[in-house]
Amino acid sequence: MNILEKIIARKREEVSESKNITPVSELEKGIYFERKTISLAEALRTSSFPRIISEFKRKSPSKGIINAQVTPAQVTSDYVNAGAAALSVLTDLDFFGGTFKDFLQARQANPAIPMLRKDFIVDEYQLFEAKAIGADIILLIAACLAPAEINALGKKAHELGLEVLLEVHSEEELNVSLGDYIDIVGVNNRNLKTFETSIETSISLSEQIPDSFVKISESGLKDADTILNLYRHGYRGFLIGETFMKTVNPGAALADLQNDLTQQRNINSLVL
Fold first, then answer.
1. Mind telling me which PANTHER family this protein's record contains (predicted)?
2. How far apart are CA 40 and CA 184, in angstroms?
3. Which of 37, 59, 108, 205 is the most exposed place for a label (fewest CB within 10 A)?
């Protein structure tokens, strides 16, 4: 059993346990459940500059503890002040050290920015959880869901007013997973079975994703040159977590990258 299979097996157990503790009727009473969601897809589609989706991530199965010294409210506020287009907050506890408390603290500190619940969604119940904690976007990972599951979960997410980010790792996943209920397609440069990363994954899939979908690239993104190259291949958003989180000040790391992006774009404009 590889790490992804272990995560999904545990996630199904976790969802079953959560259903017994908190029924959907209770989730629907959450203070954020009736909140109008904010569109990340629209923000990215109308931008003329690469936009960063900044992630709060405590640890990962491949790297262990990344940063245990920072708080979600402070880091995400710093991200917003540095120009993040959206926030991603992990809510998986067992493998990534994330919690609903982390998400809620980030939501409370940043009420006016799109937020992605970063987790392994395998059940409709988790969509109600996402709505209840104030998420705007949910993640559906093609590697761990059948096409019919993606369609059903996407449809329900839209009914709840949530946008859907579909994550793919290969052309095969892309071809069988696209549908009417997908708003954003994210190409993960990290192989979830080996945890190795390659930017070539995004480049090779860029032409395969129809223009009707907003495209983002995920994982292994560290420098302005790489991001601008992917931007030229049609990617509008760039999800970055570990690169920022492994620093003492993740918000400052984002600000530095934003400055590099501006400088590099200006240099490239002069050259052209």
1. INDOLE-3-GLYCEROL-PHOSPHATE SYNTHASE (PTHR22854:SF2), TRYPTOPHAN BIOSYNTHESIS PROTEIN (PTHR22854)
2. 9
3. 108
What the block records as the tokens of 61 is: 């199965």
pLDDT at residue 244, as a whole number: 97
Q: Where are the domains of the chain?
A: 3-32+42-271
Helix axes 72-81, 100-109, angle to 10 degrees: 40
Query: What letter represents residue 217's amino acid?
Result: S
pLDDT in tens, 20-76: 999 999 999 999 999 999 999 999 999 989 999 999 999 988 888 999 889 999 999
CATH number of 3-32+42-271: 3.20.20.70
Instruction: Express the helix, strand and coil content of the chain in percent, nearest 5 each.
Output: 45, 15, 40
Query: Can you tell me the mean pLDDT for 121-127?
Result: 98
For 225, half-sphere exposure in the C-beta direction (CA atoms, 13 angstrom radius) is 0
Instruction: Convert the pLDDT of each residue in 183-235 to its tens digit.
Output: 999 999 987 666 778 899 999 999 999 999 999 999 989 999 999 999 999 99
Q: What is the pLDDT of residue 270?
A: 46
Answer whether 55's CB lies under 8 Å from 72's CB.
no
Outline where DSSP puts E strands in the chain. 51-56, 59-60, 64-65, 86-90, 115-118, 137-141, 163-168, 184-188, 214-218, 237-240
Length of the chain: 272
